[in-house]
Specification:
Length: 252
Amino acid sequence: MLSKNKIKYIHSLELKKTRKEEQVFLAEGPKLTGDLLGHFPCRFLAATSSWLQAHPDIQANEIAEVSQEELSRASLLKTPQQVLAVFEQPQYTLSPDFARQSLCLALDDIQDPGNLGTIIRLADWFGIEHIICSQNTVDVYNPKTIQATMGGIARVKVHYTSLPEFIHSLGDAPVFGTFLDGENMYEQPLSTNGLIVMGNEGNGIGKEVEALINRKLYIPNYPQGKETSESLNVAIATAVICAEFRRQAAWK
């Protein structure tokens, strides 16, 4: 059974302030919760009796068996699904060696939680283990972001820092960004290490970060020269560019 205070606490995790103070985040649904259990310490888990019976070895500080009605009152989703859990936020250390030795993503002021979650899911698919975010990028532990990762948050480490300072620390490592005046990415040799910078949904990559990018790329439309949409959604653009990086790596 869930008390009113517990339901109020779960709802409060929609707020960044509460998540930061408590150093926790909320995940909902059997697939997402199942993916995260074992990766992050679980402080609290609420689930229906059928779900708990199917998962007898769950490790959590507190477990509550609840009815579907109780779960609906606690859930932030329109359609609650059997289980929700509160996990501890991980603490990661950021190193420039990540981008010197492997391919990483950088996000410059991404604002939409769904876009961030989808990009984390894409990074997981393409084997990118680190995403470096500007301080003004949306909070990775926003419940909408967590849901959109589809479990990718268990394998992709997300860091927040000053992007200009981080890029300066990379030395001669390649720093890529997509621009309308960039080089056709399908005609350029792409490395297996470095930093791919993706920009804000409305404004693209900021001027300060743009000045530090040493490999400007362009995702061409088809056929070239035809009038099309002004730009791609940032998550879609990330998928296209990551796919080409990995395609070239596979053929080397």
